[in-house]
Design goal:
This protein is of the alpha+beta class. Helix content is 29%, strand content 11%. The strands form 4 sheets. Strands 10-9-8-11 form a 4-stranded mixed sheet. The chain is globular, with a radius of gyration of 22 Å. The protein has 2 domains: 165 residues, Four Helix Bundle (Hemerythrin (Met), subunit A) (Up-down Bundle); 269 residues, paralog of FGE (formylglycine-generating enzyme). The longest helix has 23 residues. β5 and β6 form a beta hairpin.
């Protein structure tokens, strides 16, 4: 085994362990069986479904597909198929109970670690379909792709489970840790000019990337201005106070219909009490902190605020150029601060606390253009409808990306405070329905430079 393969395997094993500890902290370590089996919102699965689903996904991809091992529990595949079972219906299924799910996951993991030890991460996998795409892995095992995919999948479900905890009613069960100290420095300007010209969008060679991030291509953009930080709670309260939710001129037709149908007057979980805005956060009622990024807002709300402010939402290409492009070298970096893995000083990631850091935090994570908090904090809505890049090729299965293209989904970028660093980078593309608010979503604004 080469030194590089050994290094990759050590990291994979560490991240597999970290992801499972994270999953257990949000399920069997936090709640009793009745709460794990309950459906806390029709928008979300029972937490016990998520728990067994991550094990079943791991079994299918790391034992059956990559490891060519026998199926441990083929009888439960249908129960944990996300496409066969809508979230609202999963509570009615004969799910594994928490202790059964935990035992199943542990059994899968033991065999996965055996598979990892013997895997040749440079060899093609005979179970992989033929590929004609110009970029990306050509096999499940190449550079550890399938292991990276499973690690990210589990961390993504960890964020989904956190959203379920936010929707759950009842006493707090997640510990609120003290904020990790990080450099704090207000940005010098409210917005930054991104110069006109080409840059590289997407990636061809990132071993952690998904099919929808590929292939890389050159995109030429006009100059534009983009906010230095995400929109804050204080700024969003100005929109509310100016009648933003009562004036249809700021809303698209679909957005206004949604606002009226929901009778929305503020972000999700907010309430006006004795003249001040409060929020419910994981079972705690507290004042809305003015300098945090606003979160739990839909695409429609974000778009309406931007129009009220005389701006617009950025396209995802604009967002990525602001995040990656270095005008001094012409390169597109993996992260705003460069190619190095995230450290606490760079970004608000990994559930260090149960909410985003203030927008003045993490100046060390700024992009070369001076844009802050592009990774971590809150997922940021863009104006772009989710689609494949030119030359897209589904790998290793179309249900990860392709089935969602052009079907009413909007692209979100950047990750949130709840996102693990393995599951986000400057090329990473998230997507959701424009009405979604239970996710940890916010936004920043942009405007055309030729309007100056």
């Amino acid at each position: 085994m080469s030194h590089e393969q050994e290094r990759v395997k050590e990291r994979i094993a560490a991240e597999l362990d970290h992801s499972r500890r994270h999953s257990n902290e949000l399920t069997i370590d936090a709640l009793d069986e009745s709460e794990l089996l309950a459906q806390h919102s029709p928008l979300m699965s029972p937490l016990v479904w998520d728990l067994a689903h991550i094990g079943n996904y791991e079994e299918q991809w790391l034992l059956r597909a990559a490891g060519r091992r026998r199926a441990l529990r083929p009888d439960i595949d249908g129960l944990y198929d996300a496409f066969e079972n809508p979230r609202a219906d999963r509570v009615t299924l004969p799910l594994l109970r928490p202790d059964e799910a935990s035992e199943y996951n542990a059994r899968v993991r033991r065999e996965v670690l055996d598979t990892l030890e013997s895997a040749d991460l440079s060899a093609p996998s005979p179970t992989t379909p033929d590929r004609t795409a110009p970029s990306g892995p050509s096999s499940l095992l190449e550079a550890g792709f399938v292991f990276h995919m499973v690690v990210q999948h589990e961390f993504m479900h960890g964020e989904t489970m956190l959203a379920t905890h936010q929707l759950r009613r009842g006493a707090p069960v997640l510990l609120e840790e003290a904020p990790v100290s990080a450099p704090v420095s207000p940005p010098r300007a409210r917005e930054v000019l991104v110069p006109a010209g080409p840059f590289t969008l997407g990636t061809d060679d990132d071993p952690w990337s998904f099919d929808n991030e590929r292939p890389a291509r050159t995109v030429d953009l006009a100059a534009f201005w983009i906010d230095t930080t995400p929109v804050t709670n204080a700024a969003y309260q100005e929109f509310i106070g100016d009648g933003g939710y009562r004036n249809p001129r700021w809303w698209s037709r679909d957005g206004w219909e949604w606002r009226c149908a929901r009778d929305a007057v503020a972000p999700a979980f907010w309430a006006l009490e004795d003249g001040r805005w409060t929020r419910r956060r994981f079972g705690r009622r507290e004042d809305v902190p003015p300098n945090e990024p606003v979160q739990h807002v839909s695409f429609h709300e974000s778009e309406a605020y931007a129009r009220w402010a005389g701006k617009r939402l950025p396209t995802e290409a604009e967002w990525e150029k602001a995040a990656r492009y270095d005008p001094a070298t012409g390169r597109s970096h993996r992260f705003p601060w460069g190619d190095a893995e995230p450290e606490p000083r760079h970004a608000d990631l990994g559930r260090r606390r149960l909410g985003p850091a203030p927008v003045d935090a993490h100046p060390d994570g700024a992009s070369p253009l001076g844009v802050r908090q592009l990774v971590g904090g809150v997922w940021e809505w863009t104006s772009t409808t989710f689609h494949g890049y030119p030359g897209f090729h589904a790998f290793p299965y179309p249900e990860y990306s392709e089935v969602f293209f052009d079907d009413g989904y909007k692209v979100l970028r950047g990750g949130s405070w709840a996102t693990h660093h393995t599951a986000v980078r400057s090329t990473f593309r998230n997507w959701d329905h424009p009405i979604r608010r239970q996710i940890f979503s916010g936004f920043r604004c942009a405007r055309d430079a030729d309007r100056d």
